[in-house]
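U., I forgot to send this yesterday:
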Amino acid sequence: MELIVVVIVAVLGFGLIFFVLKRLLRMAIRLALFGAILLALVAGAAAWWWYGPLGDSPNTSNRDRGGAPARPSRTPR
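Result:
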């Protein structure tokens, strides 16, 4: 009789541990995915801030000015 009780308790304990570990693994995967997305967003924001045209650098002050004058068209002689 004691053997049956021990086996039943062991099977229930193993099932409980298996259930908890399965949920823990799912939660860890979701947390890792969320962390990867958050890291990508932060890296993108940092890259946009680093390379973005927020400041007025000396090279961008004359953006409205046209380029070099066009070459005159060739007219037949």
